[in-house]
TrEMBL record:
DCUN1 domain residues: 75-266
Name of protein: Defective in cullin neddylation protein
A Pfam family recorded for this sequence: Cullin_binding
Role played: Neddylation of cullins play an essential role in the regulation of SCF-type complexes activity.
GO molecular function, one term: cullin family protein binding
GO cellular component entries: ubiquitin ligase complex
BP term (GO), one: protein neddylation
InterPro entries, A to Z: DCN-prot, DCN1-like_PONY, EF-hand-dom_pair, PONY_dom
Length: 270
């Protein structure tokens, strides 16, 4: 009578408990384990001639990989949550403006740095100056950042992601919505818009932004800016040669404020 073959996976777990039981074991170690189990079981099954050996081996290996991966994801989420609570206000259970300032200090960036606004975009944060736990989880999981150091290192890549044309249009639109602090608010005061323009577009279109901000601060016709005007200025930056303005055509349905701005720029040159 053939002696019962020991289970290779069981033998491996006994010999190397830390590799399988540690919830933070690297996936490389897990893959080594999976390959070891697969090879040992394939060898054993060839000797016994049992049917469906391939399915059995593949199933065992997949189960082992999924288990280790699940444990790793759980630990990652725990660290992300711990980060959140280190900045969150205990009474509101949210990261408030004070918590964001502390976060900025730890990241060694100014609270007006555009990358903080990009981080809010990545989280899809709804309320200016506040992050909920769910928003925090969404953003940091996407960035694969479960420590402050990892988040700091992720910021340059986040900026590259946002700067892609299609993403930037969404980000630019989000920046306006994020600054709507009151219910049913649809416009933003001129002072805030000037600050926002410098943060969001100042580095990419410095000439256009500087000139438009100067115009906004000197004109008396507009007290607020709406979304259509906000998006129109981004289109202006992308399509109109500056500072020549030769290809600006007021007949192409630009917002009136941009017609007035172009007229103001041309008058300054006379």
């Amino acid at each position: 009578m053939r002696a019962r073959q020991p289970d290779p996976a069981s033998h491996f777990c006994k010999c190397y408990p830390t590799k399988l039981q540690s919830s933070v074991a690297s996936l490389d170690c897990v893959l080594v384990c999976v390959l070891w189990v697969w090879k040992m079981r394939r060898s054993a099954l060839r000797k016994t001639g049992q049917p469906n050996s391939t399915a059995s081996v593949n199933s065992s290996a997949a189960d082992l990989f999924r288990s280790a991966s699940s444990k790793s994801s759980t630990k990652e989420l725990e660290r992300i949550d711990n980060m959140f609570y280190s900045y969150a206000d205990g009474s509101s259970n949210m990261i408030d403006p004070e918590g964001i300032e502390t976060l900025c200090s730890d990241l060694e960036v100014d609270h007006t740095d555009v990358r903080i606004l990009m981080l809010a975009w990545k989280m899809k944060a709804e309320k200016q100056g506040y992050f909920t736990l769910e928003e925090w989880r969404k953003g940091l999981k996407a960035l694969r950042a479960d420590t402050v150091n990892k988040l700091k290192k992720a910021l340059p890549e986040l900026e590259k992601e946002v700067r892609r044309p299609l993403n930037f249009v969404d980000f630019y639109s989000y920046a306006f919505r994020y600054c709507l602090t009151e219910e049913k608010q649809k416009s933003i005061d001129i002072e805030s818009i000037c600050e926002l323009l410098n943060i969001v577009l100042g580095s990419e279109y410095p000439g256009q932004v500087e000139s438009f901000v100067e115009y906004l601060k000197t004109q008396n016709d507009y007290k607020v800016i709406n979304m259509d005007q906000w998006m129109g200025f981004y289109r202006f930056c992308n399509e109109i040669s500056f500072a020549g303005l030769e290809n600006y055509d007021p007949e192409l349905a630009w917002p009136l404020i941009l017609d007035n701005f172009v007229e103001w720029v041309r008058e300054k040159r006379i």
